[in-house]
Amino acid sequence: xxxxxxxxxxxxxxxxxxxxxxxxxxxxxxxxxxxxxxxxxxxxxxxxxxxxxxxxxxxxxxxxxxxxxxxxxxxxxxxxxxxxxxxxxxxxxxxxxxxxxxxxxxxxxxxxxxxxxxxxxxxxxxxxxxxxxxxxxxxxxxxxxxxxxxxxxxxxxxxxxxxxxxxxxxxxxxxxxxxxxxxxxxxxxxxxxxxxxxxxxxxxxxxxxxxxxxxxxxxxxxxxxxxxxxxxxxxxxxxxxxxxxxxxxxxxxxxxxxxxxxxxxxxxxxxxxxxxxxxxxxxxxxxxxxxxxxxxxxxxxxxxxxxxxxxxxxxxxxxxxxxxxxxxxxxxxxxxxx
Length: 338
Description:
Mean pLDDT: 82
Order of helices and strands: HHHEHEHEHEHEHEHEHEEHE
Distance between the termini: 64 Å
Radius of gyration: 25 Å
Structural class: alpha/beta
CATH topology of the largest domain: Rossmann fold
């Protein structure tokens, strides 16, 4: 997104100027905004770097605060086959209700490239603000100055959930629900350990069992797949005493149920199984799968609401987490066997 200069060379960026001058890009940003407080020697070094690199800042950016485009950019890491549709639907709906249209932008490359791309969006006259669902460094926020940008880091570079969507608290809700049904020994078939959501679910699962004085038979490290759930159920010792399984997601739960069925273990009469995500198939599987629904659309709406408040110079509303998760018990879970 940095483009090329008229002589065909790659156009210098604010980071290039900062490196050549031996200062931070925040300092270069202050220089470009003609802010006071810079020492003469620092200003001289930046002057020299700007001339040597033939750096040409996007001057139209200074008119952004008075120019209305009614457009907002929603930033994701490089677009892959997975796109967080519910989050985007919520964000776009909130923007539309407020009179804005949205553009979804996938920024390729590492953190530096994403930072350059985000600042380029802010420097253009095409959008009034940027809502990023991928983490950006604090330096980007500082360089953005008072231009509207909200970073709500729900997804990392590989579209792994972070932040509130990676909240593990529903694991505690599930354990408590099953404990009320008499279950005392649990197994957790986890997701991939390089996902924040998998780590958070496991942590809350273990903490809740300890808090309630329940027994954790173990944690099977899975990979979010049906196969990992199937293998976990097939390999569970016949004398384990496990009566409740918390699966990392609905696909894992489906594999766990099928694995038990293939070895003659009845669900939920002998073992209860709980999934996560409320995928459409869970209602129609046999038995229907107990699960947790996450209100991703509300996350998107709330994040967009914060950005719109910044654009309009209004107080920024807080993000409300309570009520985003709903427990949906179905036929795959029930009272502990007597």
